[in-house]
Amino acid sequence: MGVLDGKVVLVTGGGNGIGRECALIAAQQGAKVLVNDLGGGLKGEDEGSAGPAEQVAQEIRAAGGEAASNSESVTNYRAVQGMVEQAMDTFGGLHAVINPAGILRDVMFHKMSEDDWDKVIDVHMRGSFNVARATIELFRNQNDGAYMFFTSTSGLLGNIGQANYGAAKMGIAGLSRIIAMEGERNNVRSNCLAPVAWTRMTQSVPVKDEAAAKRREAMAQAIRPDQPARLSVALVSPAAAHVSGQVFGASGENIILYSQPRPISTQTKEEGWSVDTILSEAVPAMSDKFFPLSRPPLASQGAAPAKAGS
User: Fold this and answer.
1) Where are the domain boundaries for CATH 3.40.50.720 in the chain?
2) Could you give the C-alpha distances from 259 to 87, 173, 223, 292, in angstroms and in order?
3) pLDDT exceeds cutoff 60 at 300
4) For residue 194, what are the contacts with CB-CB under 8 A and spacing of at least 6?
5) Residue pLDDT, tens place only, 148-170
6) From 77, 147, 165, 258, active-site residue
7) Is 165 a catalytic residue?
8) 46 pLDDT higher than 70
9) Per-residue pLDDT reduced to its tens digit, 65-112
10) Closest to 232 measured CA to CA, from 139, 147, 107
11) What is the mean pLDDT of residues 113-128?
């Protein structure tokens, strides 16, 4: 018996990396899985191929599970509607969407082209809208539905050279939160995950020296794609029916719960603020709570790590 027995799950980007592991683990947990993957390149530059998605579906079927494949793009709303129809026609339903499909176009912002911006926003932000909008009415009507969207520390914390990616990923966090709020009374849940894992995305970062190559080899063993995939599958299962609207992280065997923006300081002046008093009073009063521009190390993201059960 698995936590997804009787459920049907759509996994986008399911041909490689975290998406592939999500599809395989969901099937191991009893789900019928529609594996979607365009089969294109990391930068979204290739036309795509049905191969990666079908290979994962075949692997699931060979292990005794039920799976079908789809090689359409999440950037096309009609194509995503077709994914929903395919799941309904093939498996008789759809209960969860896990949406790690993505590309990278890394470049410093002052050198970023419109195409670099548009392609990344299209796949991540528009793609997240498409999979949600194509399924939300079904989920509301059946009072049963769960989303796992993928955000990133590049958005939550910032990362040089990823303005397009970070902007999209912060937008996804906001989208997920509002879907969770609006879906609460209809048992529609939504969470998002900022994964740290060894995938073709992380492999695309250039290696500058032998020390970096050794660190990369160690990372490949320590931060595997199956680790965030397990968390994704767990959180779309009925066993996590009380979990919605949250931002999680996964890095190796660390499961992280991120804070969400809330006011941390308020300065009030009854007679009203002027430009001068804002600069001389309000800004200095808040400055000790300003966040530094440096990116915090992974171990400091959130509370100190705690062992399970502690």
Assistant:
1) 8-257
2) 35, 12, 22, 17
3) no
4) 150, 151, 152, 153, 155, 156, 169, 247, 248, 249, 250, 256, 258
5) 999 999 999 999 999 999 999 99
6) 165
7) yes
8) no
9) 999 999 999 999 999 999 999 999 999 999 999 999 999 999 999 999
10) 147
11) 98
Sign of CA dihedral 274, 275, 280, 283: positive
Any idea what the Cα angle at residue 234 is, between residues 229 and 236, rounded to 5°?
Answer: 100
Q: What is the assigned CATH class of domain 8-257?
A: alpha beta
HEC states along the chain? CCCCCCCEEEECCCCCHHHHHHHHHHHHCCCEEEEECCCCCCCCCCCCCCHHHHHHHHHHHHCCCCEEEECCCCCCHHHHHHHHHHHHHHHCCCCEEEECCCCCCCCCHHHCCHHHHHHHHHHHHHHHHHHHHHHHHHHHHHCCEEEEEECCHHHHCCCCCCHHHHHHHHHHHHHHHHHHHHHHHHCEEEEEEEEECCCHHHHCCCCCCHHHHHHHHHHHHHCCCHHHHHHHHHHHCHHHCCCCCCEEEEECCEEEECCCCCCCCCCCCCCCCCHHHHHHHHHHHHHHHCCCCCCCCHHHCCCCCCCCCC
